[in-house]
Amino acid sequence: MNRNQLVKQIQEKRSFLCVGLDTDLTKIPNHLKNHPNAIVAFNKAIIDATKDHCVSYKINTAFYEAMGLKGWAAMEETVQYIPDTHLKIADAKRGDIGNTSSQYAKAFFETLPFDAITVAPYMGEDSIRPFLEYEHKWTIVLGLTSNKGAADFELQSTGNQLLYQKVLQTVAQWGNPNNLMFVVGATQATELAIIRQIIPDHFLLVPGVGFQGGSLEEVSKYGLNQQCGLLVNASRAIIYASSGENFATEAKEIAQQYQTEMGQYLPM
Ligand SMILES: O=c1ccn([C@@H]2O[C@H](COP(=O)(O)O)[C@@H](O)[C@H]2O)c(=O)[nH]1
């Protein structure tokens, strides 16, 4: 999916919501637990219920990898079920020496039909370059993450700027706003004004609203650009809105609430 297609989806739906499919067998409703393909059945119901209210789905691969072969199969079936109108993100946080990163890129962009993958920048340009070589695919680089540990390295000073700011400035030169995005946690909304000075045009993937307490209003105030430029992710707040048989209708309700609020903030 290219940038124009993504922006068109956002404009049509008046939503920049990304639903996170962090599906955990221990948390899905009891009536589904004995289903022979429980994770996929749950995910399909969530996708059917939320697809009119979001423009993207983010599969955090950890939840699937933890289940071994069955998990990979569930991930594959899930990503194939997501409509092509929606940006399909693998939240895999990969990155290694060049030839290994090439294999990661092949795994998520060719073997699996993801549009985007999250990548850690710590190993530098050659670890990210193989992902950027794919046309119409997105590399989403960790910038300023939502967790407390962001203070350990990302928020440390390196001369006249913070480490995460140096990452944004440097990595932005390796790609362009049509193939690169950055992760910025919603819990870091106050940094967004500075971030927009460094990377005014890039899309930002913003996790951390809902359970982690980030504010959609603050993120939108400081992070939106002329073409929206934001994908705000919520995982647990949507997929576990109810643990009963009504889980999908409750998930729809929460996704719709995010969509309505997002519509109020969108500039276009
Ligand atoms: O800085 C980061 C980077 C990634 N994540 C991931 O996003 C979701 C958030 O889930 P919620 O349930 O909405 O809190 C999850 O997959 C994280 O691994 C993040 O939270 N922060």
TrEMBL record:
It is an enzyme of class 4 (lyase). InterPro entries: Aldolase_TIM, OMPdecase_type-2, OMPdeCOase_dom, RibuloseP-bd_barrel. GO terms for biological process: 'de novo' pyrimidine nucleobase biosynthetic process; 'de novo' UMP biosynthetic process. Pathway: Pyrimidine metabolism; UMP biosynthesis via de novo pathway; UMP from orotate: step 2/2. One of its GO terms (molecular function) is orotidine-5'-phosphate decarboxylase activity. It catalyses: orotidine 5'-phosphate + H(+) = UMP + CO2. This is Orotidine-5'-phosphate decarboxylase. It comes from Limnovirga soli. The gene is pyrF.
